Amino acid sequence: MLPCKMTSQTAQVLLSLDAEAVGLLKDGINFKKNPRDGKCYIIYKSSEGFKACKNQCKHQGGLFIQDIEDLDGRTVKCTKHNWKLNVSTMNYVNPPDSFLQDELEVEISDDGGLQLVELNPIDPWLADPREPLELLDGEVKVTYMTHACMELQLGQRRFMFDPWLKGPAFARGWWLLHEPPKDSLDRLCAADLIYISHMHSDHLSYPTLKVLSERRPDIPIYVGDTSRPVFWYLEQSQVKLTNINVVPFGVWQDIDEHLRFMILMDGVHPEMDTCIIVEYKGHMILNTVDCTRPNGGRLPQNVDLMMSDFAGGASGFPMTFHGGKYTDSWKADFIKTERKKLLTYKAQLVKSLQPRIYCPFAGYFVEAHPSDRYVKDTNIKNSAQDLNTHITKLAPDVMTWTPKPGSVLDLGLALRDSTNSEAITNPPASAKIYKDSWDFALYVDELNSAISCEIFKHQSWIQFYYTWAGFQNYNLVVRCLFTLLPALSDPPWLLSALLGH
User: Fold this and answer.
1) Which region, left, alpha or beta, applies to residue 400 given φ > 0 means left and ψ of -120 to 50 means alpha?
2) Which of 368, 336, 377 is nearest to 178 (CA)?
3) Is pLDDT of 136 > 70?
4) Distance in angstroms (rounded) separating the CA atoms of residues 202 and 434
5) Please, are residues 51 and 44 in contact by the beta-carbon 8 Å criterion?
6) Strand partners, 104
7) What pLDDT digit, counting tens, does each position of 25-50 carry?
8) Pick the residue with more confidence: 1 or 440?
9) Residue 189 in contact with residue 381, Cβ under 8 Å?
10) Do 162 and 184 contact (CB within 8 A), yes or no?
11) Is there a contact between 276 and 308 (Cβ–Cβ < 8 Å)?
């Protein structure tokens, strides 16, 4: 890797409010001043949460005050030239279509407090800009493997994202929906570099990395410098990887004269989630992965290719809840509403960023184990094709790509002519698209063997874990529908220990 002269992107806390102060915030517009430095901020409270920005007009830096002409309580007015800002959208409405106010990240702490956070710099990819060069046919190819795993051929180098190519994720909860190409593990082991976005096991797959470690343990792997390390459990996993590189946020990592990449933090989960910009010969590929608000919502516009998640349904809520309001009809309505909100957000994000090409991925998983059939049947996911159809209506100039495992996008061809049928190569008709078997016994037996771990033999250790994990002020309720544990041999205090926290 070539030496880098940039400084790392940082997250600065501008204002902190304790839980009591948060409780006093009214619906609508709230003006707050930091008592330490006197700087002023605007916090907008609604049923959807909080939005915040600096109390500073982007025109000439004037202060905002409440706009008494606004009956909805969403607009503030600059004291210098009467410019008006709708704080609920962060759009300037007078003059219209002039500026978009820079939004601050609002972080809610476990105790109910609130922090306003600013990333600095907010757009680090603008450092050392490069003019795009003409791409030859076949020079940049993007191959979809499965779920969040993409292979980028960038000239003579191959860059792999988030390789989950075998085994389950989240214990036995998730399994691959798509059948990876037969040579996917060989291609992984032949890659020049790998990016792993975060520690969730559908991105950090130890069954996959075990194969890699046995065949090529020194392959360069890059992760962001999150406070919760991506490879937190590497030693316990006994997977031997010897070339893991933790890189700072917002800094170009130069691989050669044409190829570089930059890892960015998520605004909602900066301790864990990351996304990446890859640039080759001045052409940008943006992969936001699972980030809820990548880089605090500030992202490069008009990139050549954008990829993001789309499906929803990652949480077991509310399918794993039972009784009270959690009827089947309530769950169905909740799922429908949440999926629609996610689909609308993704489509609006693509519309605002206007990438040349958009590809939904990182959502191709299935709750395939027989004991999770109820979750599978009720946890309806968004369709990639439905999202792309919605995007086509909102942003007709954006080319969309719904990938199949093994399909290839020739970026140069697609950029020159998005209607060129040769820009996308689909797998042969004989290729297997969907998995129909998952080797349950192999992996579930290994998971069950962990139950004999020493920790389950000592009640105090279990209690210590739940204290360490932060369970407090509410009950953890366990409802066993199907168990993989040898129930007759379980110590009788185990369940009571769980129910007691």
Assistant:
1) beta
2) 368
3) yes
4) 17
5) yes
6) 52
7) 999 999 999 999 999 999 999 998 99
8) 440
9) no
10) no
11) no
**Residue 486 pLDDT > 80:** no
- What is the rounded distance in angstroms from the CA atom of residue 139 to the CA atom of residue 493? 62
Cα 66 from Cα 85, distance rounded (Å)? 10
Q: Are 208 and 215 in contact (CB under 8 A)?
A: no
Query: What angle, 0 to 180 degrees and rounded to 10, lies between the N-to-C axes of helices 384-394 and 328-353?
Result: 50
Give residue 316's pLDDT: 74
Answer whether 281's CB lies under 8 Å from 135's CB. yes
CA angle 211, 215, 218 (to 5 degrees): 105
pLDDT digits (tens, 9 = 90+) for 372-392: 999 999 999 999 999 999 999
Give the amino acid at 260: R
For residue 491, give every residue at least 6 positions away whose Cβ sits within 8 Å of its Cβ, in sequence order, or none: 456, 457, 459
Amino acid identity of residue 123, one-letter, is D
Mean per-residue pLDDT, 293-298: 87
Residue with tokens 């999926």: 339
What pLDDT, on the 0 to 100 scale, is given for residue 11? Answer: 81
Whether the predicted pLDDT of 120 surpasses 50: yes
- Which three-class secondary structure string do you get for 45-94? EECCEEEEEECCCCCCCCCEEECCCCCCCCEEEECCCCCEEECCCCEEEE
